[in-house]
Amino acid sequence: MVQTEYTIALKSLIKSKGFNKDIMAHEEFRKLGEKLTDLDMLLAHEFAIKFTDMNPEINTKYRNRLYCRPIKTLTRVQQKLANTKPEAAFKANSDLAAFRVNVPINEISKVGSKLKDIVDRYNGYIFERNSITDPVTGELTDIVTYYFVYIPDYKYIMEFQVGHEFAAYVFTRDSMLRDNPNCGVANFWANDFYNHVKAAILAGKRLYSEPLRTEFLTLWDQQGLPREHIDNKLIMWFLDVMCY
Question: Is there a single domain that holds both residue 147 and residue 127?
Fold first, then answer.
């Protein structure tokens, strides 16, 4: 099986430091990232596809909800490595093999449990970035969470973004806006709109009811976006149907 200078160094780092939430702050990931090549970009993506193929209990049950994200470019990873914020270097290394798992919020923990079962079977490691369950009430505090997985046979750290489809929708457009602020998509963080929607989802409210419907149209109009460009996902959430 193909090994690279990067995968050998990653395995050694995890062996010495462990693999849990504490490792996210290690600056060693910045130097580690400097070993990445275009071959690593390709191999990480191939291993991500292999993971879904070899673990049908996820790929079948969440067939329409589990997405292996597109292959990363080395240039984009290098840009992330240049970010000096805490945990930025780890995030750059963990984004090579990335997944989105879109599920109703009451199924987030079920996906986490299934991932843990798979990781245990492969003698790997897994941790959740931040718990989204209130330790006292047991209620959810967010609509999305992140699991990080390292399985030696798969060579690269894998990131699983698990949560409500609205979060994935917004985060995708955040990336588009970061790359091109004039790309013509809405910024859903304006007017604190994302957080208003998150609160509604957590409360089980209908997204197309007032005041969110009016907030959505106001946000859209304020950013100078033609209403005819509102896509089907947004129509479903804010103009027609209930959130799941």
Answer: yes
